[in-house]
Specification:
Blueprint lengths: L3 E6 L3 H17 L6 E7 L3 H11 L3 E3 L2 H5 L6 E4 L6 H10 L3 E4 L7 H14 L3 E3 L7 H11 L6 E9 L16 H4 L3 H17 L2 E9 L4 E3 L7 E3 L5 E8 L4 E7 L8 E8 L2 E6 L5 E6 L14 E4 L18 H18 L7 H20 L3 E2 L4
Parallel strand pairs: 1-2, 1-4, 2-3, 4-5, 5-6, 7-12
Antiparallel strand pairs: 7-13, 8-11, 8-17, 9-10, 11-12, 13-14, 14-15, 15-16
Helix pairs in contact: 1-9, 4-5, 5-10, 6-8, 8-10
Length: about 375
């Protein structure tokens, strides 16, 4: 593999995960250590940039992302900045001729997302969204089964993503709780992931009805402060959806899911079978086959666990028998993008996929505000 040189723009918690995954890729695929190199990092403050560079092991750091884009030794940029900055940074990177790997969601509005897509299509650079959850081997296997017709006629689906990081009213206000910066709350933060997984498995969305609710409407302005400021994004979202294919379903998203750590799950039912997955048991896909033959003992119907484990094509380490982890899905998502760049083909999940998910989320916000079904085509 030809060496790819990466510039990191933003280095919060998710930026650290991305950097960790890039470092793992040579071990995952038996590549030379020099095949993937982070050459520089840009953050909003020079002191955090310097600290990030020391952690990553790169020489260049800056508080001006444009200085990173100006470097000839940067082939692609990895954008991990707050949502409201994506339009500016992605467009600047496209104009600089850099390939772009962008954290979800694409933007804070459909209008921003369209401007991003227009700029990228005009530039000719390759781009990919960080919808890493679809890279669990069990989910890849689920898509294979659906495409093979295993489910038969699909009746309906159900998706859920619960986390519990916001259940304390003492948790201070951050940019993720400010709609002007984040675009939305639980729906944008984690809902984008489960919506993308179902999109990957079932195709385009058609329309949505939704209920969004803010469960803790005011939070401390800073840790330990008595001053409270309003929260204007959702803590909980319940969506009823219809796909372009006509298949109906629901998605439930919460950052107030007491007892959950990082629990994404879905179930899809058809007239010939069903599949279900839960991220807290990621080595397995559960399948039900209506065609299981009957026997004098009452047949063999029932959900069975299909071994998926760490079956990544071409991977050398960790061994295939290992349970796949969240960081490994990031590594696979990044690896597929780098391969697309090297092979000169469009990457997936694409920025256009990110725009479709953006449309679904904005349609859900409108549906909740107006108490009606909203067509994705209207966005």
């Amino acid at each position: 593999m030809k060496r790819i040189r990466i510039g990191m723009i933003g280095y919060g918690g998710i930026g650290r995960v991305h950097a960790m995954a890039y470092r793992d890729l040579p071990f995952n695929y038996g590549l030379p250590a020099s095949a993937i190199q982070i050459v520089g990092v840009a953050t909003s403050r020079m002191e955090t940039a310097q600290k990030a560079a020391a952690e990553i092991g790169c020489d260049f750091y800056t508080d001006d992302y444009r200085a990173l884009l100006a470097r000839a030794d940067v082939d692609m940029v990895d954008i991990c900045t707050p949502n409201d900055s994506h339009e500016e940074v992605v467009i600047a990177a496209a104009q600089a001729g850099k390939h772009i790997y962008c954290e979800k969601p694409l933007a804070i509005s459909v209008a921003q997302g369209r401007r991003i897509v227009d700029a990228i299509e005009a530039s000719g650079v390759n781009t990919q969204m960080t919808f890493n959850v679809r890279f669990f081997p069990a989910i890849i296997r689920a898509r294979q089964l659906i495409e093979s017709g295993f489910l038969g006629r699909i009746f309906h689906f159900r998706g859920r993503y619960y986390r519990s990081g916001y259940i304390s009213a003492a948790k201070p206000h951050t940019w993720r709780l400010n709609k002007a910066v984040s675009g939305g709350g639980a729906l944008y933060d984690i809902g984008s992931h489960i919506l993308d997984v179902l999109y990957y498995l079932l195709g385009d969305y058609d329309s949505v009805q939704a209920h969004l609710e803010t469960l803790i409407p005011r939070r401390p302005i800073a840790a330990g402060s008595a001053e409270l400021v309003p929260v204007d994004v959702d803590d909980y979202a319940l969506l009823h959806l219809k796909m372009k294919s006509g298949v109906p379903g629901s998605v439930e998203v919460s950052r107030m899911g007491t007892g959950a750590t990082n629990d994404l799950q879905f179930e899809i039912s058809g007239d010939q079978g069903a599949i279900r997955f839960r991220s807290e048991d990621p080595a397995w896909l559960e399948v039900y086959d209506v065609r299981d033959s009957e026997s004098p003992l009452g047949g063999m119907r029932g959900f069975r666990r299909v071994e998926s484990v760490q079956r990544y094509e071409g991977a050398k380490s960790p061994d295939w028998t290992m349970t796949p982890g969240f960081v490994r899905t990031h590594a696979e998502c990044q690896y597929q993008f780098i391969k697309a760049i090297q092979e000169g083909r469009p990457a997936s999940p694409s920025i256009q996929d990110g725009l479709h998910i953006q449309q679904v989320m904005e349609a859900a916000q409108r549906a909740s505000a107006e108490g009606r079904w909203v067509s994705i085509a209207d966005l």
